[in-house]
Amino acid sequence: MSQPLPLDRHALRQHLRHLRRALTDKQQVQAADLLAEHAVNFAPVARAARIALFLSVDGELNTRPLIAKLWQMNKQVYLPVLHPFAAGHLLFLCYTPETVLTPNKLRIPEPPLDIRQLTPLDRLDVMMVPLVAFDRDGQRLGMGGGFYDRTLQNWRQHGFLPVGLAHECQQVERLPVAEWDVPLTAVLTPSRLWQWE
Ligand SMILES: Nc1ncnc2c1ncn2[C@@H]1O[C@H](COP(=O)(O)OP(=O)(O)O)[C@@H](O)[C@H]1O
Ligand SMILES: [Mg+2]
Questions:
Q1: Residue 4 above 90 pLDDT?
Q2: Rounded CA gap, 30 and 185, in Å?
Q3: Domains and CATH numbers, the chain
Q4: ∠ Cα 112 69 190 (to 5°)
Q5: Ligand 1 pocket check: which of 10, 14, 15, 149 to mutate, most ligand atoms within 8 Å of Cβ?
Q6: In the chain, at which end, N or C, are there fewer CB atoms within 10 A of the end residue's CB?
């Protein structure tokens, strides 16, 4: 958090992804359990019926314990699927314990593209968002695909709340911001909730 950050977006991504991957297995397990506990007590999540999540890769906070809790609470969980035609766009499909996941071209497991399982964004209450870094203003840096910038473009009209999930070490003072970047109004880490606005 206090390291000097001279870096452009590419170098920042590399630096933060390295920090994240350097966490030990034990730190990862603790972080994921704390976060799950935290997240289900966060009011917008506690009252949500439909929540979009993501499956963790690359040292991201493991979302599995949270997903298990949400299922126990009878919440509907959705996962992103790469849009088959519209490059750079995501679809959100229902994820249950019975769903068989298959790795996509980015090697991230996703549900089968069954339109009966597809949800319009308007139906979601909360969308948990992955990130590589976030800053003091809630600005978000992703993996570089812009997927969530596109998805979050009109989040207020859709009526869901985007919530970033991150390890503490992913916070930086200030990120370079591009015109298409969509800032977050909430980020959950294992130890606290950050909120803006
Ligand atoms: N709403 C959008 N519409 C069209 N292209 C977008 C949009 N948001 C992002 N992009 C494109 O996605 C690319 C990656 O965005 P970037 O913000 O760098 O990635 P990330 O948010 O994953 O860190 C950018 O080059 C940008 O042109
Ligand atoms: Mg962006």
A1: no
A2: 25
A3: 9-195 (3.40.50.10420)
A4: 105
A5: 149
A6: C
